[in-house]
Write a structure and sequence with these properties.
With 213 residues, this protein is an alpha/beta fold. It contains eight helices and seven strands. Strands 3-2-1-4-5-7-6 form a seven-stranded mixed β-sheet, with helices on both faces. Helix 2 packs antiparallel against helix 7.
């Protein structure tokens, strides 16, 4: 990740959880968590962009072992305080330290949106996943917002984050699936997670793909 991106998330760490829920909608991350609770037997798992550890405990309960990573040391310090039994490492999804075919499952929660190079992030995931391993992606998708709701979303983002990283990518489900196809993944599950009670909430893609290398 770029230095600017690392500094951005370091500065956001202390207020990340409250702000992300205000920007996306308070029910979106809980709905993603519900989907993760349906997963089983994730084997040896790596989590990218764990942030303050919101999804980490659920992932740990669904896997044999877990390593949770983030580019921000400040984010990880908060996560470590919450989940003392988990192994956390500072790491960039686009430049992993692990050998080929190390993991059974990789999880990216709200990661591709802010990756400098989303395609590279997927390629690295493929490299460190075993053949037949799974990549689970949960990423915001603003393409379902009505024009007025889109303006409100952009205003909330600028108000809460002060600025948005220049590397931000607004990816819809079709674009993510196209990148997965180019990387050698086969999509097994593709769903749109929405909060029907709030038209201003951002939707999220939930995609599970199998590594076919």
């Amino acid at each position: 990740m770029s230095d600017a991106n690392v500094k951005f998330w370091a500065a956001m760490s202390s207020r990340y959880d409250s702000f992300i829920d205000e920007v996306l909608g308070k029910n979106i991350r809980p709905k993603i968590l519900e989907k993760l609770n349906e997963e089983e037997n994730l084997g040896r798992l790596i989590e990218f962009g764990c942030g303050t550890g919101y999804f980490t405990k659920t992932l740990a309960n669904k896997s044999e072992s877990i390593i949770s990573t983030d580019i921000s040391e400040e984010m990880l310090e908060i996560a470590k305080e919450r989940l003392k039994e988990i192994e956390f490492q500072v790491m960039d999804v686009q430049n992993c330290k692990f050998d080929d075919e190390t993991f059974d499952t990789a999880f990216m929660g709200l990661v591709l949106l802010f990756a400098d190079d989303p395609q590279k992030a997927l390629e690295e995931s493929s490299r460190i996943l075993k053949s037949g391993g799974s990549l689970i992606i949960a990423d915001p998708d603003i393409s379902f917002l009505a024009p007025y709701a889109m303006l409100r979303f952009r205003f909330r983002a600028l108000l809460k984050y002060r600025r948005i990283p220049s590397t931000s990518h607004v990816l819809n489900q079709k674009e993510i699936i196209n990148m997965l196809d180019k990387t050698g993944f086969e999509v097994a599950i593709k769903e749109i997670i929405q909060d029907e009670s709030n038209s201003n909430s951002v939707s999220a893609n939930y995609i599970k793909a199998i590594n076919k290398k």
